[in-house]
Specification:
It contains 8 helices and 2 strands. By secondary structure, it is mainly alpha-helical.
């Protein structure tokens, strides 16, 4: 059950701040300012917590907040990939839906993609599992392996195939987030998919 914190002042009624609201506030600050330029008081203020000890009822450290954000994003992505794999048989279909999801998130929740793909989490979460070894990305690599086995993807090392494919996707999303590409991610989705798939498809 989600933790809740009740806050009360002399002039205002009780306000409830949830753990999810704390994580959302921290995520936005991390994406905007960077992890090291964000302080616990910044997060407390952004979440609307008015008591000095309010934040510590949820998290003792900024690192714990970052770890919780990362786990939540990766768990959600892993569940989404499971759903995609159940709906689609071919590697091409599965990869296309994963790309669609990443591009949609870039437009709808850019801070999620910024944190997941572009923040150097190893600098502030040194004991965290490397991104490519997390369940979500292990599943994507398995899709690559199956695509090679079924003859959809050319016969190269599956990690190399992953690198070629997601190199295109990640760079495109980076350019969108950094305004190097002026339009929404959706505007470049089809072109990026074609370029990425062309780099690994068996011809």
């Amino acid at each position: 059950m989600e933790q809740e914190l009740e806050l009360e002042t002399a002039s205002t009624p009780i306000k409830t701040v949830t753990q999810d609201q704390v994580l959302q506030a921290a995520l936005k600050l991390f994406a905007q300012k960077g992890y090291f330029n964000t302080s616990l008081p910044d997060i407390k203020d952004a979440a609307g917590i008015t008591t000095a000890t309010g934040l510590t009822q949820f998290f003792k450290t900024k690192q714990a907040i970052a770890q919780a954000i990362r786990e939540h994003i990766l768990d959600s992505l892993s569940i989404s990939i499971d759903d995609i794999r159940r709906r689609n048989r071919k590697a091409s279909e599965q990869l296309r839906e994963i790309v669609d999801l990443l591009f949609k998130l870039t437009d709808d929740a850019p801070e999620v993609i910024q944190f997941l793909l572009f923040m150097r989490c190893e600098e502030f979460l040194p004991e965290a599992t490397p991104l490519l070894d997390t369940p979500a990305f292990t599943k994507i690599k398995r899709i690559m392996q199956n695509g090679i086995k079924e003859g959809e993807i050319r016969s190269i090392d599956h990690v190399v195939a992953f690198t070629y494919f997601f190199g295109v996707i990640q760079f495109t999303l980076s350019m969108v987030l950094n305004k190097g590409l002026p339009k929404s991610a959706d505007s470049y989705q089809s072109q990026a998919w074609l370029a990425a798939w062309s780099s690994i498809v068996k011809k």
